UniProtKB/TrEMBL annotation:
Residue ranges of the region described as Disordered: 46-110, 196-218, 309-361
Segments of skewed composition (Pro residues): 92-110, 320-333
Domain of life: Bacteria
Compositional bias of kind Polar residues: 197-206
Name of the protein described by the UniProt record: Periplasmic protein TonB
Annotated organism of origin: Caballeronia sordidicola (Burkholderia sordidicola)
Biased composition annotated in UniProt, kind: Low complexity: 334-361
């Protein structure tokens, strides 16, 4: 008995401890469950009936837990910071507006180089190789050349009188006033009445009328040297340069020449064209005692001249003479010079100044 008692007491002791631990464990578990948040069940809302708007819950702010504020020693006073410099922004001046575009004036129109007048082939006819007929319609020859005086007035026509089958052809002269011209006639546009020439050039009529004496043919060797030949003659410019060669003269119905047909291929520029120059612009000048033809065309005017064509209307050209440039007048002498020249020797100085001053042409 005595030996078993202590064992039973020991077992009882451990059983009591175990029960106490179990109770404490149960209490701890139960107290631990109360630490978890308790989730309220979701309310059941009937959506079939309108519900009043729920008022927002007012949540009171929680008071912060009072924490002990540790006392700190007072901070040393800091030096005041300098105020930051204010950046001043100066507004930029707007750029000046661009200047208005300068309207460029159109360059002045250059003056025309030529004046042109147009004539039809029914109004004028070429002289060279034009048939000449008598009033009865018989063709007796062809015009081959003409001569004009120093004023440009036609004086003589040279006619090639036709022989028999080309045998006996000869060139004779007739006064220009003996002819009548009809440019619109295609055959024999030139007509004149003369006595029928014989073998020796005399009239077959025994008694020739005084008015027919002037219409008798003359010799080409008797042409006065004061007359200028037209056909195949060279035409010079005002500066002496060769312009071309006359290949024909255009005559109107009043027997007045209207234009010279000039072949430019004989010019210094060797232009392969022909132009019709106005007859009144012709100058007959004497060079080395020889009558020569001159037209005051410049190289630019010749280059701008329209081409003469027998199949197109005839464009007769005249050179445009530019206006003379104003002469620069000498500057007047200052008044002090006149006052200073009043002393002795002023006459000599005045004479020297007159010699030195260029004379106005």
């Amino acid at each position: 008995m005595s030996g078993g008692f202590p064992l039973r007491a020991y077992e009882w002791h451990w059983r009591t401890v175990a029960r106490t631990l179990a109770i404490l464990l149960v209490l701890a578990v139960m107290s631990g469950c109360s630490l978890f948040p308790h989730q309220a069940p979701a309310p059941i809302v009937d959506l079939s009936t309108p519900q009043p708007p729920s008022e927002p819950e007012v949540v009171e702010p929680e008071e912060p837990a009072s924490t002990p504020v540790a006392t700190q020693p007072p901070a040393e006073p800091k030096a005041p910071r300098p105020a930051p410099k204010r950046r001043v922004v100066v507004p930029k001046k707007p750029p000046p507006p661009p200047p208005p575009p300068v309207e460029e004036k159109a360059p002045p129109t250059p003056p025309p180089l030529l004046t042109t007048r147009i004539m039809q082939h029914e109004q004028i006819r070429g002289l060279l190789d034009s048939e000449i007929q008598r009033p009865d319609g018989k063709v007796i020859g062809r015009a081959v050349d003409m001569y004009a005086d120093a004023t440009g007035k036609p004086k003589i026509m040279i006619v090639n009188l036709a022989g028999f089958l080309g045998v006996g052809d000869r060139k004779v002269t007739f006064p220009w006033t003996a002819f009548r011209f009809n440019p619109a006639t295609k055959k024999a546009p030139i007509t004149f009445a003369i006595p029928t020439p014989g073998s020796n050039g005399a009239s077959s009529t025994a008694k020739a009328k005084p008015q027919d004496t002037a219409a008798r043919p003359g010799s080409v060797n008797d042409i006065a040297p004061t007359l200028a030949q037209l056909i195949d003659s060279n035409v010079a410019q005002k500066n002496g340069a060769r312009m071309g060669r006359v290949v024909d003269v255009l005559i109107d119905a009043q027997a007045q020449p209207q234009a010279l047909v000039i072949d430019l291929s004989d010019s210094l520029a060797a232009d392969k064209r022909q132009v019709a120059a106005n007859w009144p612009d012709l100058h007959v000048v004497s060079r080395n005692k020889v009558m020569q033809l001159q037209l005051d065309f410049t190289d630019a005017q010749i280059k701008a001249a329209p081409t003469y064509s027998p199949d197109q209307p005839i464009k007769i050209i005249s050179p445009v003479v530019p206006p003379p440039e104003p002469d620069a007048s000498p500057e007047p002498a200052p008044a002090t010079t006149a006052a200073a020249s009043s002393g002795p020797g002023s006459d000599a100085k005045a004479g020297a100044a007159a010699v030195a001053r260029p004379s106005k042409q």
